[in-house]
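Section 4.2 – Deliverable D4.2 (structural model, holo form)

The reporting period included a commitment to supply a predicted holo structure for the target in complex with 2-phosphoglycolic acid. Inputs used:
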Amino acid sequence: MRKKLIAGNWKLFNNAYETESLINKLIDLRAAEMGADVVVAPPFTSLHAAHRAAGRSGIELAGQDVFWEEKGAFTGEIAPGMLLDAGCKWVIIGHSERRQYFGETDETVNRKINAALKAGLKPIVCVGETLRERESDQTTAVIGKQLEGGFAGIAAGMFEKITVAYEPVWAIGTGKTATGRQAQEVHAFIRGWLGKKHGGATAQIVRILYGGSVKSSNAAELMALPDIDGALVGGASLIADDFSAIIRLSAKTGK
Ligand code: PGA
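Output (structure tokens):
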């Protein structure tokens, strides 16, 4: 059985003060004691405040991105070791907003995954199709390509550290959620791909999160599906009550 993982992607929200207050609210709500693993990804500049506030609450931290070099003349970048130093155990890699606005490719995703694993960070690797790709029946082809490129050369043994997040681009921040059937279909495809590449045992241990307008009103239905092992939550993760409701509902759907 795979324990549920609920990750909050805060994107470009919450300065240090707001971060501390949101984490304190999550602690008051006992978010990390509900039976699911809980991770939040504040902006880089708020990580220290988040780490201090999270203390021993069980709330873990992720970077929203990472660079593949440890040091050097790379203005504006953040190294895997710096994320560790700021208290992160996780890092989101290949989010569709990085792919869409900041030139992220399957190749850079692959370099980042390698660097994160080498440093001891656990990557949450995002894949997903656009609306146009879905409407032209390209969904599995697009996701297959992202998996092949992103995970090129990654050994089977590494997958115990890796989480995949399926986030249909058309469902992110739009209020449109994939139906349970649409999501389960793609999650099963991803698990099938892992099985073909790295064997059934590996495929069974990897958690595959769903992301895209997850809210307390749809979390229970989605999280109960056989291949959905948690959620990557954007908007609703900025509100402590909503995020903890999603965690509570997900933790209940043990399967
Ligand atoms: P959303 O974002 O929940 O606001 O749709 C999800 C994400 O981008 O990870």
